[in-house]
Amino acid sequence: MEILNIRNMKKLLLVLFVALGSLTIQAQETLEWHTDIKEAAKLSEETKKPLLLFFTGSDWCGWCVRLQKEVLKTSEFEKWAKENVILVELDFPRRTKQSLELKQQNAKLNQFFKVRGYPTIWFANGSEKATGGIAFDALGSVGYVKGGPSNWLKEAKRILNSKK
User: Fold this and answer.
1) What is the spatial distance between Cα 51 and Cα 106, in angstroms, rounded to a whole number?
2) Single pTM value for the model
3) Cβ 58 vs Cβ 91: under 8 Å
4) Which residue(s) pair with 141 in the sheet?
């Protein structure tokens, strides 16, 4: 009788572990990172939220991975981001394939914002021009900030509040 209870307990613990693990994964995937700048700029205009433009080398940049792990994939950042910004990932991978259109878009934005290293995050307001392009009002930039999400968010809030 005790053996059955132990087996049942093990099964129950396994089911709970799997369920909690899937909830954690779902929580981490709730942020929407846009890759199409026109779509993101339109959303920015509609919601009156600035763009957070994350210039990254996702498959080779150690500091980018570290920023993701320590800040961008935390619940504190997720809560703040949902309320305050439209997220845009502008990736410059070495091994991951990208469409020519995406590469060209990201290169133009990299040049426009004069990105010199990765990771770099620019905050900007974006609005669609009559010609079909996008006009940007750059608010400020930040990279990796030591000290986790609270220190990084303090810097992000300073940038956003300085332009109000």
Assistant:
1) 15
2) 0.81
3) yes
4) 122
